[in-house]
């Protein structure tokens, strides 16, 4: 397991470098000059590395089908790019890339054209490049792989912190000239030179950084002038997302239970956890869908349906791979349903994701959002943390019980008091009642 983690670290750096080279080439063609388009000072674009590592983990099994591999890579690239762009704008008050001028873009963070391009490129790399790259890394002595991996992580972390610090300072003062005027004297000249160099490079690579810094400064002054809102969970805030996760997990479980009753004629548990009717897959899906589409709920239903169908299908596929990797258990198998992909997803249920997306964004979310915001602020925050603690303990305990259930199936005896506790309180009969469709992998 440790060796696999260090291999993934190496893949992160390799594909971050390849992504940096691609950005440099694109900038050279567009601007006719060299521009370091990476966030870091080093020759790395981490968003590419993160995206490729996730693709390798979750979609490598699709390399026998180029179309679905490219589709999965496109969705993963879009999701990573969206949340990376949104997070960086939230933290640094600056938009690092903007697809606003492209058709069907989502908040300027992603657009179908570039997502498809990233997906095809990633699929080509996995099909033709990675098979040659993996054996080369396996030839390097394990000691060197681990040592260089740690060294590169330390250097990159330091690079990230230096750049983030410089940009946050730029956000505070809004202008590089103001930063330079307030810097320390002769004893700090070397550090300041590096500091200024980072800021100047970032401003050259991302011209809107200084402008956005000024906008952020003005926004802060306006915020001080405004009276603080007393509405609980206003907008798409942390507390609202916690409530939506809890509600979405409950509604998802109830929906699946009724659907199974109507189609199979039996009542069966569809819960992901030991305590309560909650489907974690639906809860997380609701949160991700809300974060990506809540600002665009006025768009055409067809757009939201297609988005939900594609992203929902990819999300369900990732969940299936993840649970099998972590727990050694398959919680659903669509092998007997037409148009399935490895038994993990099928076209009919992907359409359900699309319909659910339209229903959620257009009807359910606006109603629940207004209802949640009516909750008294103090009571709402207390309940948020109660929900969060309860569900965290529930998920951890369920995961431990599932792992032990898998070990028992493999004939592994209890080795400690924790195993004995799980065997006593969560025997096979109870696990099979909660997870009736679970299949233990050999």
Offer a few descriptive terms.
71% helix; mainly alpha; two-stranded antiparallel sheet; 442 residues; 4 strands
Write structural notes for this entry.
- This protein is mainly α and 442 residues long.
- The protein has 15 helices and 4 strands.
- It has helices spanning 2-31, 46-59, 66-92, 112-139, 142-173, 176-181, 189-205, 208-225, 238-264, 280-293, 301-327, 347-373, 377-409, 417-425, 428-434, and strands at 329-330, 340-341, 345-346, 439-440.
- The strands form 2 sheets. It has a two-stranded antiparallel ribbon with strand order 1-4. The protein has a two-stranded antiparallel ribbon with strand order 2-3.
- A hairpin with a 3-residue loop joins strand 2 (340-341) and strand 3 (345-346).
- Helix 2 (46-59) runs antiparallel to helix 3 (66-92), helix 3 (66-92) packs across helix 4 (112-139) and helix 10 (280-293) packs antiparallel against helix 11.
- The protein is globular.
- The protein starts with a helix and ends with a strand.
